[in-house]
Structures are given as C-alpha cells and as structure tokens.
Amino acid sequence: MDPTSLDKLLADTRKRQFWLKPIGFPKDHPDWDVFESRKWTESEIEIHFAKTPAKIAVGAIIIAYRIHVSKLIFVAERLPMSEWSPADSRSDYSRRRWPFYIKGHNLTPEYGSVWNQYSLQPFALAKEYKELHPEDPVHLGSIQRGNDKALISRGFAEFLIRQIRSAAITTPPVPPPPSPP
C-alpha cells in the first residue's frame, strides 16, 4: 500500500522533523465509545491541535494514530500555508477543543482506507523498537499525559513507516469489529 510515496520518504535523507500525533475524541466526549469508521484517503489532511503546532516545521512528517483503539492511521508531510486549501468546516466543539490546525499531504491514502484492519499500535511498536534499538530511546509519556504531539527520532519514525509499508504485504488484515446496531 502506498509503496511509492513511502519508499521516496524512506530514501529521503534530508534533515527533517518526525512527529507522532494522536487523533480522536477525549475520554469525556460522548462519542468516545462510538465505532471509528472514518477513512483517511484525502490527499490533503487537516490536522487539529489543542496547543499551537508552531514547532512542527514545513516538510515535517506527522505519523498519526487513532486514540482509544491505538492504531496508526496515516502518514502526512506538513504543507506550507501557501499550499493549503480552504479550512474544513467544523463543529463549535471541535473549534473550541482543537483551535489550531495545519494541513498535510497524505502519503498513505490507501493505507488510510483500511487502517482499522491492522493492529499497528504505536506504543507496542515503541516497545519493540526499544528492544531492537536500545541506543535510540523512544519517549511517548507526554502523549499519555495529554500532550497532543510528540517529537520522535528519525529511526523510530522510519520503523513505524516500514510497518505501514509492509502491513498489507506480510500479514492478512484483521477484520474490523462489527458495527454497533
């Protein structure tokens, strides 16, 4: 899935930032337990933040995961503001909860259409990566304490990207849970 864009990304040795970004409703939201069926297939994705994303540089790579189910959902490259399309319409709640946003070019629209069929969980993958690469520690505690983004190392980012790249090739998809009645 999406092999060309991910292969180009993995081959790109430019210095850039890599971020892990949680996406989804907080536990106190009424839709917390609603089955997540959203697809991430758009070529441009609007990514919302509770705190300013000013530290996320143009060209940075954002690897997003869906909270509650803790599964990777897309990889995007931050676009400069001059390339943004008009902002998406959002509810009052969404604008209050996440007042800041950036736009990114979706590098994984194919994976984004079937993300919930795979169990690519960032915290389990961080543990696996730490065991393989103890010299490159992964610190995700700030996200678990409510931060809406975490800067991650290139090594860990490439590990996550390779997991997405190989998901459909090496493992059959896990069927999504049944939709609630």
List the defining traits of the structure above.
6 helices; 6-stranded mixed sheet; 181 residues; single chain; alpha+beta; globular; 29% helix
* Rg calculated over all Cα atoms: 16 Å
> How are the strands ordered across the major sheet?
2-5-4-3-1-6
What fraction of residues sit in β-strands? 15-25%
Mean pLDDT: 86
Q: How would you sum up this structure in a few lines?
A:
This protein has helices spanning 3-11, 92-97, 109-114, 122-132, 141-144, 154-170, and strands at 18-23, 44-49, 61-66, 71-78, 100-106, 150-152. It has six helices and six strands, in the order αββββαβαααβα. It has 181 residues and is of the alpha+beta class.
Sequence-ordered SSE layout with sheet pairings:
Elements: H1 3-11, E1 18-23, E2 44-49, E3 61-66, E4 71-78, H2 92-97, E5 100-106, H3 109-114, H4 122-132, H5 141-144, E6 150-152, H6 154-170
Parallel strand pairs: 1-3
Antiparallel strand pairs: 1-6, 2-5, 3-4, 4-5
Helix pairs in contact: 1-6
Structure overview:
With 181 residues, the protein is of the alpha+beta class. 29% of the residues lie in helices and 20% in strands. The protein contains six helices and six strands. The protein has helices spanning 3-11, 92-97, 109-114, 122-132, 141-144, 154-170, and strands at residues 18-23, 44-49, 61-66, 71-78, 100-106, 150-152. It has a six-stranded mixed sheet. A hairpin with a 4-residue loop joins β3 (61-66) and β4. α1 (3-11) packs antiparallel against α6. It is globular and about 45 Å long.
